[in-house]
Design goal:
With 310 residues, the protein is mainly alpha-helical. It has helices spanning 11-20, 51-71, 76-87, 91-115, 121-141, 148-172, 192-208, 213-224, 229-254, 262-279, 285-309, and strands spanning 25-27, 41-43. The chain is built from 11 helices and 2 strands, in the order H-E-E-H-H-H-H-H-H-H-H-H-H. The longest helix is centred in the C-terminal third of the chain and has 26 residues, at 229-254.
Length: 310
């Protein structure tokens, strides 16, 4: 695995050591795992990225950050395949590294949206209460238990299902709310039961696969809470910040994050997300949905082939 630390019996200590003491050797005591130094000493280091790799990661996150903020879906369905296909990460690494990037993307986007008064804070809070713990447990206990090829194949099949979901929603022509003055604040009454049910499923997707949560949450909130496309996207970004942050903690505990890739990804995601959040409200709801559908089509075809050959 391409990882800045060995996933020994104490992955949490390894994560902390990589963050605060890069390049140092940490003695975990006796470890009966092949490939480790005698006496259980694990050589922890922070790999130096080649400039081309760093620039590529930054560019990928920049584009996905802007796109994800505009549609409110986070962009995980583009980021995770990109990390796997373009940068050679295995399934758990792609998901774990992608999640920490998505958490920063959601944070930057939600702050920008909230300043514009588009976030329904009460709705986002109820959503986060359930989505966050489910995402943490899914990322910690499930993702790295799956074989990499199996995990990536599941993500590919999930993308196909999401494409069908969006297509059916478009053909159904379901109605959403509008940004009238009465709906411009945070006074929407949350439908708590429906929010908790939806958040459970989306939190699982956020934690286990880092794909599909936003794609489901945006139309779900638009339908359940009668929000406009822009307001649903903004509220999803705010709720996704909590869920993705919790998922990132879970993946860190499981040792799934390639920390050396995080800085360029996070920088690109924050810049792109802030720009996309400013641009999003200027686009019509129909344009937002077209961008969402185009993203699914663009990633769907390569993922089908990738799932076949994984």
């Amino acid at each position: 695995m391409v990882c800045p630390f060995e996933q020994g019996h104490d992955a949490t200590l390894s994560v902390i050591a990589c963050v605060f003491h890069p390049g140092e050797e940490i003695d975990h005591g006796p470890v009966d795992q092949p490939g480790q130094a005698a006496g259980g000493r694990v050589d922890l280091h922070w790999p130096v990225l080649e400039p081309g790799v760093a620039i590529g990661l930054f560019g990928l996150a920049l584009v996905i950050g802007g796109y994800g903020s505009i549609i409110g879906a986070g962009g995980g369905f583009l980021l995770i395949p990109g990390l796997a296909l373009l940068f050679g990460l295995d399934g758990a690494e792609a998901v774990g590294t992608g999640v920490i990037t998505l958490a920063c993307l959601h944070a930057a986007g939600s702050v920008a949206y909230d300043r514009q008064g588009l976030v329904e804070r009460t709705v986002a809070a109820w959503w986060a209460v359930t989505a966050a713990p489910v995402a943490l447990l899914s990322g910690w206990l499930l993702t790295n238990r799956l074989d990499s090829d199996v995990l990536l194949t599941i993500i590919g099949l999930l993308m196909i299902a999401l494409a069908v979901f969006v297509a059916m929603g478009s053909m159904g022509g379901h109605q959403v709310g509008t940004d009238t003055p009465a709906r411009s604040g945070v006074g929407v009454e949350p439908r708590v039961a429906a929010l908790l049910v939806g958040a459970s499923g989306v939190g699982f997707l956020n934690g286990a696969f880092a794909v599909g949560g936003g794609l489901i949450a945006v139309p779900y909130l638009a339908r359940v809470q009668r929000l406009s496309a822009h307001r649903a996207a903004a509220t999803t970004a705010a709720a996704g910040m909590a869920a993705s942050s919790a998922a990132a903690v879970g993946h860190a505990l499981a040792g799934n994050i390639v920390w050396a890739y995080a800085p360029p990804l996070i920088l690109g995601a924050v810049i792109g997300s802030s720009t996309g959040a400013r641009l999003g409200p200027r686009l019509s709801p129909r344009t937002v949905m077209v961008l969402l559908s185009a993203g699914l089509v663009t990633t769907g075809a390569p993922l089908i082939g990738f799932a076949r050959w994984a």
